[in-house]
Amino acid sequence: MNFGDRILEYKDDILNDLKKLLEIESVSANNPEACRNALRFIIKRAEEFGLTAKNIENKAAHIELGNSGKLCGVLTHLDVVPAGKNWSVEPFTLTRKNGRLYGRGVDDDKGASIIDLYCLKALKDNNIVGRNTVRCIFGTDEEIGMSDMETYFNHEPLPELSFTPDSDYGICLAEKGILQIKISSASNDSAIKEFISGGAVNAVPDEAKAVYYSNNELKTLSAQGKAAHACEPHKGKNAAIELIMILKNYTNIGHLLNFAADKISDKTDGQSLGIKTEDKPSGGLTCNLGKVRINENENYFTLDIRYPVTKNGEDILKKIRNEAASFNLTVDIIHHAEPLYLPENSEIIKLLSSAYKDITDEKPGLYSTGGGTYARMLGGKGVAFGPAFKDDEVNMHNADESIDEEKFFLHAKICMQAIYKMYTNNF
Predict the structure, then answer these.
(1) How is residue 334 annotated by DSSP?
(2) Element of type H or E holding 306
(3) Separation in Å, CA 391 to CA 142, 231, 295, 403
(4) Which label site among 104, 218, 277, 353 has the fewest CB atoms less than 10 Å from its CB?
(5) Nearest-angstrom CA–CA distance, 162 and 422
(6) How do 228-229 and 203-204 pair as beta strands?
(7) Average per-residue pLDDT for the chain
(8) Residues facing residue 306 across a β-bridge
(9) pLDDT tens, 139-174?
(10) What is the CA radius of gyration of the chain?
């Protein structure tokens, strides 16, 4: 049965609730209370729909339908990265323009969160009898390390089948390893009094500003770049790197920034650091310099490295430590997530392929990503699936994040069909 079209009956309500959710500025890097408010909003709406909801330590929650069979999960996050600059619309509201939906989180990942909520409502409203239990699970700090899911799964069991609509279509069976590190110096040995760039470890910084001494005078210099997700740094322009390379020609930038200039430079494949590598399942390593902080109390920058699924993160870390040691710098791990790789004949991949074909009459492609999703928290029982289509430039983690409205509701139909199959299939 093709149940996916039923979700379109809620189109206006979905957009109204999406607008309300986008207006909650749930930036996990600096506004945890807003993240909790976003979680409360979802729980309140679910309970108004007559669905069962459970809050786990104000960090995560699930909405549940059914109480038998296999436990199936659909995972999304309610936190977002900072808005950044250069938006053509207000970032924290829903704007419908030229056939697109704009707003921070409309793709990553609030749009998908609202769709999940309404998928369970549609099953309940239509009195669908399920053989299994479906939980839509919502987190609040996916963008800064996924401790929300660590907390959640300390209290609740792992689903036996699951997916997270937090990437692209078709089906992502491989996620690169994520190594986020902080490289710091014990003291500032440069002529730079202050350097600030970047708001998140996992984003290409679009602005950088430095205050430095030149001929015993304080001067200010800034650079503009283009934001992008750290898993695709080549799509952005790193303002921090650009400013570092300019400053090197004018003043003493010290050991820390000389390391960035010499060993990172404008290469996004790790070549300058000696960590360039690739494999067939997932492609090449990426390396992004994210945050830079130099002032009276801090002297560091961060790197976000996405490495191929068949490679060893500890080997990569060892090479970086050796390079940093030659500059008298310290390397600390911020976050390390092992790669994810599922075989093509996995039960969840077969189910999602079937749902996609039911709606589009096409088979979904299989691909790998450098992005990090909740799928890697699921013990090999889950993958990323949607919501964005590869021919739609959604500007994830960039200004003017948006999604084509028709494609948004095509995702809604595919997601509805997948959740319907999870709920009703006899596995």
Answers:
(1) E
(2) strand 299-307
(3) 25, 18, 43, 11
(4) 218
(5) 9
(6) antiparallel
(7) 95
(8) 178, 286
(9) 999 998 899 999 999 999 999 999 999 999 999 999
(10) 22
